[in-house]
């Protein structure tokens, strides 16, 4: 119970394009954060307007050539320097409720990033499919996104201190109607 008496500024950040169908559920899941920042990369379906109406800080920017790591780094740059903890998700992902409490429970001043359960898919019968650990919760400094597709975050500092967030789970609900054809050239 390392961080029980600490109070941290927690900011969620994300990228999106035409994700209107996910906005309300995602914002409800992320409301435990102090602030939410989204880089919209070209929506024409009302996504940025809905995000703003629900309280997110939204910046619109088209990135050419497109790379997921460049977009993630641009969205991370939106997070203020005084943020203690940065939480990166996509709009088709939601945390189980109570994630903020558990994050602050285990986070300590020397923590650099945290691992948590990630449910990549749910089977037709409602059970969890592929589950693995993810580490997209991190400090504001010393992190950079790498790789044009299936991007990952890397620590650039000297002494990483990763913790396990017991009881924190992020669930993925992908839009199966969306094409992923742009991934192969990347």
Could you characterize the architecture of this molecule?
With 186 residues, the chain is α/β, with parallel strands linked by helices. It is 19% helix and 31% strand. The chain is built from four helices and ten strands, in the order βαβαβαββαβββββ. The protein has helices at 20-30, 47-53, 68-76, 99-106; strands spanning 10-16, 35-40, 57-60, 85-88, 93-95, 113-119, 131-138, 143-146, 152-155, 162-172. Strand 8 and strand 9 form a beta hairpin. Helix 1 (20-30) packs parallel to helix 2 (47-53). The radius of gyration is 16 Å and the shape is globular.
Task: Write a compact overview of the structure shown.
With 186 residues, the protein is an alpha/beta fold.
List descriptors:
single chain, 186 residues, alpha/beta, 8-stranded mixed β-sheet, two-stranded antiparallel sheet, 4 helices, 19% helix, 31% strand
Shape from CA axes?
A: globular
- Radius of gyration, in Å, reads 16 Å
Q: Give the strand order, joined by hyphens, for the main sheet.
A: 3-2-1-4-7-6-10-5
- Tally the beta strands: 10
Number of helical regions:
4
Helix/strand/pairing class, anyone? Answer: alpha/beta
Order of helices and strands: EHEHEHEEHEEEEE
Question: Uncertain segments of ≥5 residues (pLDDT<50)?
Answer: none
Overall average residue pLDDT = 93
């Amino acid at each position: 119970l390392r961080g029980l008496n600490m109070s941290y500024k927690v900011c969620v950040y994300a990228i999106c394009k035409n994700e209107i169908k996910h906005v309300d559920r995602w914002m409800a899941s992320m409301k435990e954060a102090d602030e939410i920042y989204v880089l919209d990369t070209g929506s024409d379906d009302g996504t940025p307007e809905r995000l703003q109406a629900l309280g997110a800080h939204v910046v619109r920017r088209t990135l050419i050539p497109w790379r997921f790591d460049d977009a993630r780094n641009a969205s991370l740059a939106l997070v203020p320097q005084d943020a203690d903890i940065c939480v990166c998700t996509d709009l088709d992902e939601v945390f189980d409720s109570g994630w903020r409490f558990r994050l602050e429970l285990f986070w300590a001043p020397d923590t650099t990033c945290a691992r948590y359960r990630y449910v990549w898919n749910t089977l037709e019968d409602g059970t969890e499919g592929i589950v693995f650990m993810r580490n997209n919760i991190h400090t504001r400094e010393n992190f950079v996104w790498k790789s044009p597709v299936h991007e990952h975050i890397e620590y650039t500092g000297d002494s990483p201190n990763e913790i396990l967030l017991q009881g924190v789970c992020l669930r993925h609900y992908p839009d199966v109607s969306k094409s992923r054809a742009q991934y192969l050239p990347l």
